Each structure stands twice: as structure tokens, then as C-alpha cells.
Amino acid sequence: MPALNTSPLIPRGDLFGNPTRAAGKISPDGQWLSWLAPKDGVLNIWIAPADNPDQAKAMTDATDRPIRQYFWSPDSQSLLYIQDKGGDENFLLYGVNIASGEETTLTPFENTRVDIVGGSESIRDKILVGLNNRDPEFHDVHLLDLNSGELTLVIENNSYAGFMADDTLTVRMALRQNEAGGTDYFRVVDNKVEEEPFTSTEMEDALTTSPAGYTRDGSILYWLDSRDRNTAALFAEDVASGERTLIAENDRADIGGTIRDRETGEVQAYSVNYLKTEWTALDADIGASLDWLGTQLEGEYGISSRTDDDQTWIVWNDPLTAPTATYIYDRQAQTLTPFYVTRPELEGAPLQPMYPVEIASRDGLTLPSYLTLPAGVAMDGNGSPSASSPMVLLVHGGPWARDDYGFNSIHQMLANRGYAVLSVNFRGSTGFGKDFLNAANKQWGLAMHDDLIDATNWAITQGITGKDQVAIMGGSYGGYATLAGLAFTPETFACGVDIVGPSNLETLLDTIPPYWAPLVKIFHERMGDPNTEEGLALLKAASPLYKADQITKPLLIAQGANDPRVKQAESDQIVGAMKDAGIPVTYVLYPDEGHGFAKPTNNIAFFAIAENFLAECLGARAEPLGDVLLPSSAEILEGAEHVAGLANALAE
């Protein structure tokens, strides 16, 4: 591939290291800009006056795990963020006072996971939070004073999966899974949950129907609703009368995000994401702003933050073949002021375009997918590439999630190394209606896997790749799909990379986090019920562990020791089975990580191992390992000899 030889190698650190800046926001009062940026190598929250962005200062002092999620208090007096320990997903809530710089642990409990139940535009110094410190299965609702830290119990919860409140921070609704695997919705009056639900869903609608919030005065309840239809539409329900009005619908995809009026809470615009995100405005002023932004920005864009007066927006722009940039948008003046470029080191790098494609499954479904080709390989008007390349089938997690159009660090690294990369929204992926979602029920390792095989065969037929040139790779469900691919269809893939993937569906369901217990029925209905003979047989048949002896191709497994969802035992089991069968496997453990890898040093180390593993298998190029393992916590428990340079790197 001559063009690849002249294309510069993009350093791993430029793709997987800390961003220069990320998650830019503006305080509700418009006085402050905020963002995430490294401080001594660890992502922390920074702020600067909106009228003097150069006067930046760090407001937090995380020294181990990066801060990845934060938000402003409604009164603009403090910054709030969540953080866990070592990837255990017991997220606590922390607050930093802007004036004093003092940091407070707002939920100071052990083995506790906080949920945000509700915020308010009118009560600006308080929010509602859910805490499972009393019972790990259920979140009790508390009123939290953001400035004093005082927690007041509102509802003790012994059976509900979640709650919804209005703008007065009054809890209005509780939800609970029903016996069918659907959801029952209950009115809450004076913090008491009514005995009978006011509405319900069947299991088939449970993942495509949900309440989407109240208007500011509490008179309208919005729903994203797939009942009596396929795709989820946006409805407005009059709370007093129960009358429902259809606001928006789309035949190909569920209604996604909305933009709400800052004063009234009414929907002003909505998005639909089939292959790409498209916004439709219901409000003329919002429509004019979105249209103007569309004339100024190439590729995808969106709003990440708005001031109370709605005159200033923080807007991100993803051009795909250049690094993502963020701007300060003054709506009245119609100006876009550069805020930052997330990864300026990628400016001028040979980033590759992403092609949205539709692939037909063997039983007639359409699989919305995304293809990235290596440097020097182009797609012609008929959808055929100018040359064949080795390919990585990159499978998303969930499985009740989806792949999207946009910049993807893994796609870019692999394409830069010489691979075509294909991400497939297989059946069970969300956003494409309930029929597509429910076509995956009890189809782990069956029709869900067939979709991935069909996509692989499509790529071969299109000349994108060759029959023996495809690797499979993914995290969580994507890791499971990797194991299933090598165990169930051992001739299809040349090798596989499994990141925190379950190998035994029975033990996976037996060890779910306690706070998932109120939703366990949906796992049983969609995967198989281990409490029935038929369900248990289904789970065992779909578990790669029991066919580990049929794996014949190279396999790399990576696992976080503190993963609460896919326990380390899931990787340990299949590695042990492969060793017993005398089958080579490379196993990397991160003792300070959970379900995926948060620390950049660990991410960089993992992708260093992965790209050299893939190069050994498929023959594309790789950046040498060098001393990448030294700053990481990676422990190579098995098979260092199967990755080029790994044994030497360990010896240094």
C-alpha cells in the first residue's frame, strides 16, 4: 500500500493521551468559562472569567484518576463532579465553591453510588440526589443543599428503580420494572408513591419508552414513546387531563435529544440520529441559530452549554478529518469565538473520513454502519474502495447502545496503521426503533452474531478486505462478540482483541452490581433467564467459555481488576480454559481500572499492545512499544511472547 508508506504515523499519545482541553462549559450566569485539562498529568476542572479566558486556574486537585464528568450548580456558585475509586463505579458527588476554592465531598459515604434525580431553574442552590448507602439495591431520594452540604431524606426507597421530579424539586413520578420486563410508572403525591401505576410499558417498549421531563410549570410531561408504533416519538402529555399531543416522529430512527426553552422548559428543537444527527427546530429563533451554525461549521456540531439568558452557547464542532474544536457563540452578535481545540497535536495529521453505510443482514434487516479506510484508499461512487486492506471489525458495547458518526480515536489509529475499520449497529443497537432492538431478544451468539458475520462478508464482497484478513475487536459486549467470534466461528476471523468482555453469561448475570437488581428482569427477558431450564441452556450455549477449546486464532484479552459489571473472573475463566486446552492467549490486567480504562497511561499502554498484536496477526504497521508500559499499571499475566516486542518491554 504505497500511499500508507508516505503517510505519517500518528503517535498513540496524540490519540489516547490527555486532551489539551475538553468538556467546555459556561456558567449559567455567563460569568465563567470552565473545562477539563491536565494538571500534573491528570484531568482536572479549570475555570477562567468569561471576559478574560487567559486568567485560567485549576479548581480541583485530582492526582490519580482523571475527572471525566462535571457540571455547574444552577446558581453558578460551585462546580460539581463525580468520581469513583479505581473504576469501581461507586461514584460520589463533590463540590467546589468558586469564591473560596473549598472542595466538599457532598455524599461522604463508602460503597455508595450517587444518582442525580433532579435539578431546578427556580431553586438554584439545591438538587435532588439518589443514594444507595442504606441499601445497595435502591437509591433513597435526598434533597441536597449545594452550599451547606446538608442532605435531607425525601423518600426512603425499597422497590423503585428511579424517580422524576419537576422544577420545584417535588418528586412527581416513580418507576419500577414489572413482571413482564416492562416498566410501571407511579404518581408520587406528597412524597408518597401511589399503589397503582398510572401507565405501563410491555417489555418490548421498555428500552424505547421513557418520560423526558416536565415543563417549568409542571403542566406538561414529555415522553419519548414507542407504544403502538415502532420508533420512539416525542409526545407532550397534559398532566391534568392526560391528553397527549404528538410533537415529532421519524420513520427510521427514534427521536433523540431536545433543546428546551430556558424559561418555560418547552421543547424548541429535537434531533434524530439515523446515520448522522439532524436537528429540527420548532422555535424560529433557535432554528435561525442552528441554521447559521450550519453555514459556519463543517461536519458535526452541537451545543454543550447555554447561559440562563440563552444568549451565549458553547458549541463543539467535529470536522472528522481535523481535531474537534469548541467555540463561544454569541447569538445576538452572530460571532463564533474560538475557545480551544481538543487535541491540537492532531492538526495536520492524516485523519481519515468516516463513511456511513447500510448493510443488509441475511434476514432482511438494515444495519446502519460506519467505515473508515486507510490512508491512500478512497471510496468510489459505487461504494467500492480503490484497494483491499486488512480490516478490524470494531464491535460496540452495551449491547443496548450504538455506534455513531464522528471522530473516533480507535478508528483513526487503526486506519493510520493500514486497516479498514468497520463498526456495525447490529440488531439490539439502540436508536433505530423497537423492532430492530427486539430482534436481538435471546439472540446473543445467534442472530446478533450473524449480523457481524454478514457485515464481514459484505466487506469482503465489496473488496474492502480479504477473506483471511479480518480481526474482531471490542469492549464489554464487543469483547463478548470477540470471544464468540473466535469460539463459534473460528474460521471467520484472523485474530481477536477482547476488552472487558464476558465469557460466561450465567456468571455474568449472577454477579451484576446490586444497583442493577431492580432491572434484572430485562436481562432475563433479553438474554435468557438462568432460573429456568430453557433460559439456562440458552445462556450456556451462548457462552464462549464452553467452546474455548475451539479457539484456534490469536487472542488478546484486557481486563480491569475492579470492574463491577464484568468481573475479572470472566476473563480469568476463559484464559484458564484456553491454558488447559493448550491454546495460546495474551492476558493483560489493570489492577487500578474497572469497566474500561480511564487513565491515559493505561489506555496508551493497552493500544500499544493491541496495535503490535494486530500487526503480528495481519501484517499492517505499528508504532513500536518502546517504554510505554513503564508509566502504566499493566500486568501481563499470560502470553507476552505472542506480541512483538512485549517480552523485551517487560524485561526493561
Automatic annotation (TrEMBL):
Domain Peptidase S9 prolyl oligopeptidase catalytic as annotated: residue spans: 407-620
UniProtKB keywords: Hydrolase
Official protein name in the record: S9 family peptidase
An MF annotation (GO) of this entry: serine-type endopeptidase activity
Keyword Hydrolase: yes
UniProt-listed GO biological process terms: proteolysis
Organism: Altererythrobacter rubellus
Enzyme Commission no: 3.4.-.-
PANTHER family, per database record: DIPEPTIDYL PEPTIDASE FAMILY MEMBER 6, SERINE PEPTIDASE S9 FAMILY MEMBER
